[in-house]
Amino acid sequence: MAKVEHRPTQNTRILEYMARYGSITSNEALMHLSVARLASRICDLRMLGYPIISERVKVTNRFGEITYIKRYKLVGKETTEPQKIDSGANRGVEREK
Predict the structure, then answer these.
(1) pTM of the entire predicted model
(2) What secondary structure does DSSP assign to the chain, as a single string?
(3) Which positions ≥6 away from 24 have C-beta within 8 Å?
(4) pLDDT beyond 50 at 12
(5) Would the pLDDT of 25 be above 90?
(6) CA–CA distance from 42 to each of 73, 75, 88, 97 (Å)?
(7) Which residues pair with 56 in a beta bridge?
C-alpha cells in the first residue's frame, strides 16, 4: 500500500510563518512558502476567524523607485524571532509610521 504524504496547506504555512516571524509580505510568501496569492489566502483566513491586520509598508524596488506593499500580522500572537530569513526579497523595506 502506498504511503500518502500529508503536506501542510498554504493557509497552515502562512499561519506558522506569521506565528514564528510576526508578519508576512507577498514577497516573503512567494520566496519562502511558494504562495503566489497571499492576499487571497489572508482573505480565506480572515473568513475563518483569524484576526489578521495589515499595514502599508514603503519599499524601494530594484529600479530605485518608492512603492508600497502590505505586511500582514496575526493579532494577539506572541512571536519568537529565531533567525530572520534574509533572502533580499524585502531589502530596502522601511516601515511607514
Answers:
(1) 0.72
(2) -PPPP-PPPHHHHHHHHHHHHS-EEHHHIIIII--S-HHHHHHHHHHTT--EEEEEEEEE-TTS-EEEEEEEEETT-----SS----STTTT-EE--
(3) 14, 17, 18, 38, 71, 72
(4) yes
(5) yes
(6) 10, 13, 23, 23
(7) 70
Is residue 25 a contact partner of residue 57, using CB atoms and an 8 Å limit?
yes
Residues 14 and 26: beta-carbon distance below 8 Å: no
> Which amino acid, 13?
R
| Gap between the Cα atoms of 54 and 52, Å rounded | 7
Q: pLDDT grade, residue 96 (50/70/90)?
A: very low
Residue 42, Cβ neighbours under 10 Å: how many?
A: 21
Task: Give the chain's radius of gyration (CA, Å).
Answer: 15
Neighbours of 12 (CB within 10 A): 12
